[in-house]
Specification:
Distance between the termini: 5 Å
Strand content: 5-15%
CATH architecture: Orthogonal Bundle
Largest sheet: 2 strands, antiparallel
Number of domains: 1
């Protein structure tokens, strides 16, 4: 189903919890520094235990604010997902010049 202009306005006003906002900000900061933000990198940046990061990150994925952009080899030698910010739906529609169907 197409996203309507009023839905786009409402999307931008959905409040994040403090934890979600902190994780989202940490991901943005790491990306700005050229670091691929894994859950472990976000936890280190925030000084949080990993089990405090992953639920908030999962909620951000469900809200389509971030997405899994790829996999990197972490400092433990294990493969880790890294996260990228979604452009806002308003930005996508402005770029494309038409309504975007996210259904």
């Amino acid at each position: 189903m197409p996203v309507r202009p009023l839905s786009l306005e409402a999307f931008g006003t959905v409040d994040l919890t403090a934890g979600q906002a902190a994780v989202l900000a940490a991901i943005g900061q790491l990306l700005a520094e050229g670091v691929k933000p894994t859950d472990q990198a976000v936890a280190l940046r925030l000084g949080w235990a990993i089990n405090r990061v992953t639920p908030r990150r999962g909620e951000l994925v469900e809200q389509q604010r971030i997405y899994k952009a790829g996999v990197v080899k972490g400092w433990t030698g294990r493969r880790m997902a890294w996260w990228q910010l979604w452009p806002s739906r308003v930005q996508l529609e402005m770029f494309s010049g038409k309504e975007i169907d996210f259904g």
